[in-house]
Amino acid sequence: MFLTTLLDRHAILGNVSVNSKRQALQMVADVAARQLGLEAAEVHQALLEREKLGSTGVGMGVAVPHAALAGLDRMHGIFVRLDAPVDYDSIDDMPVDLIFALLAPENAGTEHLRALAKVSRLLRQKDLREQLRKMENPDAIYAILTDIADSNAA
Fold first, then answer.
1. Is 121 helix (H, G, I), strand (E, B) or coil?
2. Which of the following is catalytic: 10, 44, 66, 76?
3. CB atoms within 10 A of CB 82
4. What span, in angstroms and rounded, lies between the C-alpha atoms of 111 and 103?
């Protein structure tokens, strides 16, 4: 799975200001509503429900929130870089400033798990995280994410 098929350059926000995990997830839901034609409230609720099962803060300032939603025909990614980290109940207790959300069709099954694994592996790369933290332009963020991810997949 290549990130170019998962992540649309219009589903990337850089330098976003929020005060909480809840607001960060609302930002993801707003992008999903705008880009995918979903109801923002439905997406937000699905992400919050998933967080009740355990935090999707995977450590090192990274979160990978995810949810399965009706109305999707394939996996979609949304990337948000916060201008200041927020408390996220991460496994390492570090606040989060890099969020890569995954939205899957209700019947995605193993495709959803493969996408989660790929994104998690990708964002474990320290150099990549440092580059992403310096970027504000969504096109630059897209280029870095897709170039690195797709070259690793080859």
1. helix
2. 66
3. 24
4. 11
Question: SS3 for 11?
Answer: strand
User: What confidence score (pLDDT) does residue 154 get?
Assistant: 44
Phi-psi bin for 54: left (phi > 0), alpha (psi -120 to 50), beta?
A: left
User: Is the whole model's pTM more than 0.90, yes or no?
Assistant: yes
Instruction: Report d(CA 132, CA 126) in Å as an integer.
Output: 10
Biggest CA pair distance of the chain? 38
Residue ranges making up the domain that contains 142: 3-153
**76 included as an active-site residue:** no
Number of domains in the chain: 1
Q: What is the CATH number of the domain that holds 37?
A: 3.40.930.10
CB crowding 41-70: b at 16 or more within 10 Å, else e: ebbbebbbebbeeebbbbebbbbbbbbbbe
- pLDDT tens figures, 37-81: 999 999 999 999 999 999 999 999 999 999 999 989 999 999 999
Yes or no: say if 77 and 87 are a contact pair by the CB < 8 Å rule.
Answer: no
Helix H or strand E encompassing 57? strand 57-59
What residue spans of the chain are helical by DSSP H?
Answer: 3-6, 21-36, 40-53, 110-123, 126-134, 138-153
